[in-house]
Amino acid sequence: QVLLKQKRKPNCYVKIYSSGKVYIVGCKSEADCMTAARTIARRVQKTMNKENDVVRIRNYKVCNVLATCRMPFGIKIEELAQQYPAQSQYEPELSVGLVWRSQDPKATLRIHTTGSITVTGASSESDVMRSIEMMYPIVRKFRCAMRHRTEPKRNRPPRKRAAPSSMGGPSAKRPMGAALSGSGLIGNKVYFSDEDDIYDEDDLLDDDDL
């Protein structure tokens, strides 16, 4: 069984399992994560009426730190993948970014052509900074002009409506109660008049032909 809880100060999500394990996700810093862990421990202590007992946090550790940054230039990830095939993985059919796996410090970096880098899998804030400092001189060799995700909209001239035709276009109107003098198009409807039903005697079928 698991209990989900959302905290406001600090803002995070908490998962409490019946086995006693607690997972905290969404904190902005390691200090906020420790504060949230202590708050949850005290709240569980009060809920279970264990205020006179000693409650301690055991096996506390940071499992994953996620961070993002943006370089002041674009990155040619195609050339970067060709130059470092062992450390990088680039499959444009599956993802638009290049995946770089760092061993020291242990972290995974996702690099985009816009210069955006996302770091995941680090165990501390210092490991995040070390991975960025290690990656900066490498991506600097493959820098290019900044690439924007969306291009500016082009100013298109306004469309001009076609003038109504003599047969009566979409803007043509017929007064109410006016009789039709023949077949024609009024609005989006086609009208047929009995005056157009003119047959020749040769076109009519005899009773013997039926």
From TrEMBL:
<dbReference type="InterPro" id="IPR012295">
    <property type="entry name" value="TBP_dom_sf"/>
</dbReference>
<keyword id="KW-0539">Nucleus</keyword>
<keyword id="KW-0804">Transcription</keyword>
<keyword id="KW-0238">DNA-binding</keyword>
<dbReference type="GO" id="GO:0005634">
    <property type="term" value="C:nucleus"/>
</dbReference>
<dbReference type="GO" id="GO:0006352">
    <property type="term" value="P:DNA-templated transcription initiation"/>
</dbReference>
<comment type="similarity">
    <text>Belongs to the TBP family.</text>
</comment>
<protein>
    <recommendedName>
        <fullName>TATA box-binding protein-like 1</fullName>
    </recommendedName>
</protein>
<keyword id="KW-0805">Transcription regulation</keyword>
<dbReference type="InterPro" id="IPR000814">
    <property type="entry name" value="TBP"/>
</dbReference>
<feature type="region of interest" description="Disordered">
    <location>
        <begin position="147"/>
        <end position="180"/>
    </location>
</feature>
<dbReference type="Pfam" id="PF00352">
    <property type="entry name" value="TBP"/>
</dbReference>
<dbReference type="GO" id="GO:0003677">
    <property type="term" value="F:DNA binding"/>
</dbReference>
